[in-house]
């Protein structure tokens, strides 16, 4: 039983010097159902974003260690892919139960390593848990098709079979949810797995793997390595890995998609975003303003589905002063402090990048009507805090519009008509999410039909589909064919085999071989 494995220190090396009796814990690898110490010579310090104290050290696994993880997955595939689907389903039933009983433990780890508030961290776990719950329907999800008697004594049927060893590479912003989009879906289909969680907060993933072992998952089915670019390139190049799931930034996603595809692998790559919320003057004001504030500043804006750009149409622009008042009421503090609305951003580098974007945009003509740049949080003076910030007078050529800010910054554009808003959204390269706020059904219907974005909310600011559907970001936010989770996730992690069979009671009486196609 883990729960204490990731907090035990066992020494680390810095520039070839080994410190054996450090009190700073190290993050383990997970190979063959064991938490294993890395003997790497390169380690990454992981800091609590609220204090910048070192929480743990994460190894950059060596080539030999990463190969060991793939070998474990390869060895387990033979028996796991033949394990009955009912057995795989039963493990998922147990797994969802264990995760549900440990939500608080997982949330505490997420807050410590990633910074988000405890309540929001539980939401992170819950959205991943829902994917695990959905995998319990694998007996339906993995059904094939059958057409009986399409010719005399002949049938065709298709079956969905696992691919082999698959791999996942995850970002920092959802340390529980995104790993849970990946290995449970792959494993329940009969694949084995190597996951490389974000080096910035792997703790939740390690806890989840320990819980998977407790649920009865056999050794070698899911394994975990750590690292950065070298680990990613190892995954893209290893010939035993058949498919890669990636979630993260554009630069990494494009690289992984290209390198993995070139090596003949199936790749699904979810990347960056710029999500617009369109506010029509007939919208319900109270609801809309609250939704906007929550979706722009929740998780300190570090969500790929954050509503980071608001487009106010016509008279709705008069609501902006009230939006500012509501945003001012948000409490910025460490994620574990009661009542916190906005926690720190992930790192000092990320904070500086956000401040630079704000500064540059002001120089380009944006007006900073709520300025969270100089905030200090008593007791957490060294934390990476940025308060809610609102920029108006923004145009589409400004830095704050062109870049994904990934911080608590709401960018506001003003237009006269919904058509102009749709035009702006459809010209933006990203297609992850968007939302419209209106009380008019015809207006909403027109928006849904004309906007070129993969996930659309109508009076719903963050329209992330539950796992009976799939996460369908589009255009610049996604590379690949099959999306994450839902039926598409099952398609991604399986290949179709189609069987055409003829069973006759007696041998055919034809005396010659048929050499032409049947007509
Ligand atoms: P990131 O790309 O920096 O890191 C993601 C993973 O890729 C990590 O495991 C990291 O080790 C690896 N990596 C980082 N840089 C790399 C490079 N140059 N080459 C190869 N591998 C590299 O992303 P992040 O900062 O952890 O996460 C934030 C980003 O993820 C945002 O852009 C956000 O929009 C995006 N995101 C997208 C979705 C989605 O579903 N579309 C969901 C969550 C986050």
Automatic annotation (TrEMBL):
Its EC number is 1.2.1.27. SUPFAM superfamilies: ALDH-like. It comes from the Eukaryota. It is an enzyme of class 1 (oxidoreductase). Pfam families: Aldedh. The keyword Cytoplasm does not apply. One of its GO terms (molecular function) is methylmalonate-semialdehyde dehydrogenase (acylating, NAD) activity. Belongs to the aldehyde dehydrogenase family. Probable malonate and methylmalonate semialdehyde dehydrogenase involved in the catabolism of valine, thymine, and compounds catabolized by way of beta-alanine, including uracil and cytidine. This is Probable methylmalonate-semialdehyde/malonate-semialdehyde dehydrogenase [acylating], mitochondrial. It comes from Artemia franciscana (Brine shrimp).
């Amino acid at each position: 039983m883990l729960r204490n494995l990731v907090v035990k220190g066992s020494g680390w090396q810095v520039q070839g010097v080994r410190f054996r009796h450090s009190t700073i814990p190290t993050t383990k690898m997970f190979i063959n159902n064991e938490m294993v110490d890395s003997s790497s010579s390169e380690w990454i310090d992981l800091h609590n974003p609220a204090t910048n104290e070192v929480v743990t050290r994460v190894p950059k696994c060596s080539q030999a260690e990463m190969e060991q993880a793939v070998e474990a997955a390869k060895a387990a595939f033979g028996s796991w892919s033949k394990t009955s689907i009912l057995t795989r389903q039963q493990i998922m039933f147990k797994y969802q139960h264990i995760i549900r009983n440990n939500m608080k433990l997982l949330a505490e780890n997420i807050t410590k390593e990633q910074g988000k508030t405890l309540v929001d961290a539980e939401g992170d776990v819950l959205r991943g848990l829902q994917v695990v719950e959905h995998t319990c329907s694998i007996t339906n999800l993995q059904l094939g098709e059958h057409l009986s008697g399409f010719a005399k004594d002949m049938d065709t049927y298709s079956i969905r079979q696992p691919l082999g060893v698959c791999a996942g590479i995850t970002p920092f912003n959802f340390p529980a949810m995104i790993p849970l989009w990946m290995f449970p879906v792959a494993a329940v289909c009969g694949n084995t797995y190597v996951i490389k969680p974000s080096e910035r907060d792997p703790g939740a993933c390690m806890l989840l793997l320990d819980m998977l072992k407790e649920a009865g998952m056999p050794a070698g089915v899911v394994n975990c390595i750590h690292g950065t670019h070298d680990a990613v390139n190892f995954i893209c190049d290893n010939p035993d890995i058949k498919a890669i799931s990636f979630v993260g930034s554009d630069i990494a996603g494009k690289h992984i998609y290209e390198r993995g595809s070139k090596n003949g692998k199936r790749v699904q790559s979810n990347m960056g975003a710029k999500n617009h919320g369109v506010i029509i003057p007939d919208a319900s004001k109270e609801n809309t303003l609250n939704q906007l504030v929550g979706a722009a500043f929740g998780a300190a804006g570090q969500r790929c589905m954050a509503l980071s750009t608001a487009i106010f149409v016509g008279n709705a622009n008069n609501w902006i002063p009230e939006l500012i008042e509501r945003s001012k009421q948000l409490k910025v503090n460490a994620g574990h402090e009661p009542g916190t609305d906005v926690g720190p951003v992930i790192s000092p580098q990320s904070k500086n990048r956000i401040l630079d974007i704000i500064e540059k945009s002001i120089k380009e003509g944006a007006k900073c009507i709520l300025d969270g740049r100089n905030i200090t949080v008593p007791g957490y003076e060294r934390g990476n805090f940025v308060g809610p910030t609102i920029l108006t007078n923004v145009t589409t050529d400004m830095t704050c519009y062109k870049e994904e800010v990934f911080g608590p910054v709401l960018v506001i554009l003003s237009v006269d008509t919904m058509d102009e808003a749709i035009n702006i959204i459809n010209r933006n390269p990203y297609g992850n999410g968007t939302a419209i706020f209106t009380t008019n059904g015809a207006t909403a219907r027109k928006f849904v039909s004309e906007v070129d974005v993969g996930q659309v909310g109508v009076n719903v600011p963050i329209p992330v589909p539950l796992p009976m559907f799939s996460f369908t970001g589009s255009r610049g936010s996604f590379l690949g064919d099959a999306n994450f989770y839902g039926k598409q996730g099952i398609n991604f992690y399986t290949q179709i085999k189609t069987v055409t069979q003829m069973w006759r009671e007696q041998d055919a009486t034809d005396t010659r071989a048929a050499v032409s196609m049947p007509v």
